[in-house]
Design brief:
The complex is a heterodimer of chains A (about 400) and B (about 260). Chain A is about 25% helix and about 25% strand. Chain A is α/β, with parallel strands linked by helices and about 400 residues long. In chain A, strand 6, helix 6 and strand 7 form a beta-alpha-beta unit. Chain B has one domain: TIM Barrel, CATH 3.20.20. Classes of the chains: A alpha/beta (about 400), B alpha/beta (about 260).
Chain lengths: ~400, ~260
Amino acid sequence: MIELLAPAGDIEKLKFALLYGADAVYIGGQNFSLRANAKNFSLEDIKEAVEFAHSLNKRVYVTVNIVFHDEDLSGLEQYLKELSLIKVDAIIVSDFYVIKLIEDKKIPLEVHVSTQASTLNSAAAKFYQKHGVKRIVLAREASKENIQKIKEKTGLDLECFVHGAMCTSISGRCVLSNSLTNRDANRGGCAQICRWTFQSENKPVFSMTSKDLNMVAHIESMIDIGVNSFKVEGRMRGIYYIATVIISYRKMIDKVLNHTLTIEDQQHYLKVLNRVANRESKDQFYKNFPDETDQYFLGREEVSNQDFLGLVLDYDEEHKIALIEQRNYFKVGDIVEFFGPNLEVSEYQIQEIQDEKGTKIEVANHPNMIVRLPIGFKVQKYDMMRIKMFDK
Amino acid sequence: MNKYFILAGDNAQEKVEGVHFLFPLKSFCVGVKKEYELDEIAEGSYLYMNRILDEEAIENLESQIQAIEKKCKGIFFEDLGVLQILEEKNSSLESIFMPSHMICSKESAKSFLKEASKVVLSPDITLEESKFILDGTQNIGVLLYGHLPFMYSRRTLLKNYAKNFELEEVKTMMIDENIHQKRFFAVENDYGTVIYDSKVYDGRELLGHASFYVISLEFEHIKSIKEFLKELESGKEIEDSTTGFLHQKTIYKLPPKKGEQHD
């Protein structure tokens, strides 16, 4: 089984992730999960998420991945039992106590060990395996050889990050945030200190920021060595980012499985992914050991991406008019693209914009305003409109 | 009498009752000043392995385990793979699990104590939390003295920095964060970089509560271990020291901004 695993910070993002091609999503509850300051999911939300995912024959994993202090333990067992009743497909855990609790109390939950546990060798993987763990989310520092040997020696399901932000540290092995801001990195409060600037005497000021991860060039190799789940980082990211990244990896994975992925395809998707990101990305530890070219040392401009122009809310097939929620400025005459779960990228020049009442307007310039666009081809709810990127 | 496990660094390892020395084993450590080949290590000692081990390292450990058993009493380790290897080899070595940041609750400590001979608490917790875990529980140790490791990266951050700015490569470097005026130092080898608090950690408020105490003199110069321990136990103030998180409780959910409701 090859799985594309997407992040989802809320129920809306979850729906987009699954509709755009993820096989599974990972989400955080309102307690016990890193990204403590994301919106996250109540138990009711998790139930809705699971029902939605299962209706599509897809899966939901819930992160229970903080390093627990005693004050955090209250309600944990009950929470795990409730997750089991809701029928989440697995939980992602870093604290060994949670694994023991599930084992000892025989709570019927599949357990995946989080990347926060920094697993880089088969012996550590076997340690977890004997306690009933089904899958290991490997440390992002895993090389191809490491992954291959862990798979060969354990047969465990292996999950590897393929896209998104990297910690400069080995995940879980950093408390710079605790030290400088009092925010506990291993309980979801990380203030990303590695992106701050430092100085040593009168030497040049520097940051330790890692460039992001992308594994576009290695998907086939990862499938060959037995990686089961291809994980995208970014529970705090918006729907446009999620949709773009997920649909790109979906198409690449499918093409690998159909033996039709070409170098041109890889180059195209890399361009798409680079455009939606706000940092450069590299393949980091998989093939070579990262060097100075895998980091940022000085402040960099993170330009906000304004490619996402609108979200399709509905389409009137009889009159061929799409109802669109505006996300960024566009005007009559602009050349745009539509894409979606069931829609290949389709170019379109905007001929006319109507406001909600049907009055013609020249520009859509108010955030979230509802407009109507006459479009000759069929679009659907959840499709997206973006700036025309590049020819393929 | 207190039981100490000491990383001696460059300092002379004089025999003192109640003291065991920890030897950082070459190619199994990061952020240390001095590493040892197995044949350089005194009999009856304890090994120290604070690296996150990759497959090559775990295979290396597996091949050496019999030789280690002949010479050493036990291993202090960060990576759970070590524990698994000891179990698979049915080893008589004491296993002391000492993760930098992963044991912050009594339940976690107790869970690991079912697997390992001893555990060392994370120094990321408060005095009150530490006492709650330690009191009434055997075989749990704490860091008593040394520089707190704040970050462990697999990257060679100092080498990369030097290359990027065309500076001379160094293996240790002081680092200042100017907004909070905090100072750290970084120590690097081929296996990664560790960033430490520049102030030495003084955990003596925990004396009398733990089963054993770990002391790191890796970056300290002392005249004699015996004198050092005598001064440490006397309660004499330590210059430029910190109590780390003992009195600094961390948070992780930010309070709502004005006009914002967290649900």
